[in-house]
Amino acid sequence: MTGKPVTARFQATHAALIGIILAVSGFITWSAVNARASMDNLIVVAPVAAVIALICVVLVVAPMLKARVTEAETEATPDSAIWGDILLLAGFALFCYALTHIGFDLATFLFVWGGVVMSGGKGWWQPPLFAAVFTVLLVYGFGSLFPYPMLTLVL
Amino acid sequence: MIDQFALSQAFDLLFSSYAPWLWVIPGLLIGLVFGSIPGLQISMAMAVFLPVTFGMDFLQAMLFLTSIFTGGAYGGGVTAILMNIPGSSSSIATAFDGYPMARQGKHNEALGIGLAASVVGAFVGYILLMLLIQPLAAFVLKIGPLEMVVVVLWGLTLIATLNDSRMSKGLLAGFFGLMLSQIGMSTTGVMRTQVGMPYLIDGLPVVPAMIGIFAASELLRLRGETYLVRDETQRDISFGRILKGAGETFKYPGVLIRGSLLGAVIGAIPGVGSSVANLVSYGEAKRSSKTPDRFGKGAPEGVVAAESANSSSEGGSMTALLALGIPGGAATAVLLAAFSFHNIIGGPSFIRNQTDIVYSIILGNLGQVLLLAVLGLLSLRLLGLVVRVPLSYLVPSVLAMCAWGGYGITGTIAGPLTVAGFAALGWLMRRHDYPVAATVIGLLLGRMMEGELVRTMQISRGNPLGYMLERPIALVLFAVMLLVLVGAPLLRAYRKHRSARA
């Protein structure tokens, strides 16, 4: 820990996480209070909301009180890695949404192909071949065990 | 405690013909497969194969279904260790130390520990069931909402000990899980937000959330690495090392026995069961350990505590079913359906009039546990091959399976979307050292706690403390919880202080 001193800063992704927690908790609390402001309905929501607000204040204020931190304490993950993760995450969310819209088979084939390439899979024919074999196995293996109907486009 | 005549009849029923055992190995294999694939539930497997039991006699049907139950409980632990995907809520705590062990190249040992702890736990659970089925049934009848609140609170205290960095982060993660459990209709029928999705009327589906926050977020983190186990020389599947791991389990007899006992007792409580048992057992193992800092970083005791408790809770969960005819969870509800298929009603009269059948089921389950040890060892070589798959292929494939698993549980788009949402949340949390397990525990136990708290308030007419004084079991449970949570650390600190002065 010999890095040069820099001004304390709250990382953007950490701020986003606390923002999400506060927004979601606030929305659930608002919705519960609106639905019925009685003790039986708020017996968990109200105290939990209060504790969450308190902890968020502590987590935000504490680094600010620590006037300066060393550079070695700050995050070392390169931006390219973060954007790669976010891209794969966005692709995963799109895949989850697409399952019941374009079909489990096509969505899985495209996602696995893209995912293998994004994760560093080499060669131009191996990733699509693997994705195709994997999709067929998944549809006829995993899919046959589902007790629900499953939309497919090709298989 | 044991009716000798009925016991000899039970042996006769089980061993005079091979018929009762005919379906045990297929059942164990079905359970292992369903348990080890994320999104396929043990109860789902039992329900799918329930019609098959129509042509069987009652004992054969029970052994077949309970073997699915036994195999599935262990299968869930395998994926928790190898891929950080707990197959069910009863395997959450297995992932805490099992997965770090696998990442360190100790996957063989972790799998061996898991198998041995499961076998011992299940064995202890069923032996206790045989010895104590009648007193345990009486105990279960005396369990009310207040006692459930205390047990759930005990499970929730684990949140405070799951801190990767700061206590405040662990608490925030746990309380956020509790808050998320409040989505959908309340236990008293008040409609709160469904986040615009009618599928969420019953709240967020816990298993897809668990798959997303544990597995998907971890897989995103693995992107860019080459293999699950970094060291190439450690990637082999060694039968010897699995056996060595199994042997290592017995280096922790206290953890093993305590986990098995806790699992059997908590598992007997309907509705709480194995989901809480593995958490309480893990928490107690960590609290009582001389090296609690090792937990969460690949401590073998953590795997022993979690696996012994979740396996012994299976025996506990059979208590209410056999003695009272009350299913404690989804899997035992399917067993109850098998009861009615064969015109049998569980409860005190079943135990009194058909004691030989009850003993046969319990003895049959003990036999299954031994078969599981053999089958588990054989199947581990196959399941363990996952460490040899390059991550560039494994990450997108398992991510796809996670989404499919979410659909398999809910049957609607809500499942995959929950997986995706919690994957993003888990990714953010892991980046900043928030313990994702605390959020899952909050989500899992929040709704349970709300229901029991409301019922306690109603029964006690708004005076839960006064009511507690009338409930000796709740008082004892509460006192034990306080003793363990506050008394033990105080005593340890006092001893440390004294030895430092000396």
Keywords, separated by commas or semicolons:
heterodimer; A: mainly alpha; 2 strands; disordered N terminus; B: 502 residues; mainly alpha; 2 domains
Strand content of chain B is under 5%
* Greatest interface: A-B, 67 and 68 residues
Low-confidence stretches of chain B: none
Shape of chain A: flat
From the spread of the alpha carbons, the general shape of chain B counts as globular
Helix content class of chain A: 55-70%
End-to-end C-alpha gap of chain A = 57 Å
- Largest beta sheet: strand ordering of chain A: 1-2
The share of residues in helices of chain B is over 70%
**Biggest sheet architecture of chain B:** none
State the assembly state of the protein chains.
Answer: heterodimer
Round the Cα radius of gyration of chain A to an integer and report it: 23 Å
Assign the structural class of chain A, choosing from mainly alpha, mainly beta, alpha/beta, alpha+beta, or little secondary structure: mainly alpha
The count of helical stretches of chain A stands at: 6
Pfam family, one (chain A): TctB
Protein name (chain A): DUF1468 domain-containing protein
Keywords (chain A): Membrane, Transmembrane, Transmembrane helix
InterPro entries (chain A): DUF1468 (IPR009936)
Characterization of the model:
The complex is a heterodimer of chains A (155) and B (502). Chain A is mainly α and 155 residues long. Chain A folds into 2 domains: 69 residues; 67 residues, no CATH class. The termini of chain A are far apart. By secondary structure, chain B is an all-alpha fold. Chain B has 2 domains: 467 residues, no CATH class; 32 residues. Chain B is built from 22 helices and no strands. Chain B is globular and about 60 Å long. The mean pLDDT of chain B is 84. The interface between A and B is large, with 67 and 68 residues.
Care to give the gist of this entry?
Chain A has 155 residues and is mainly alpha-helical.
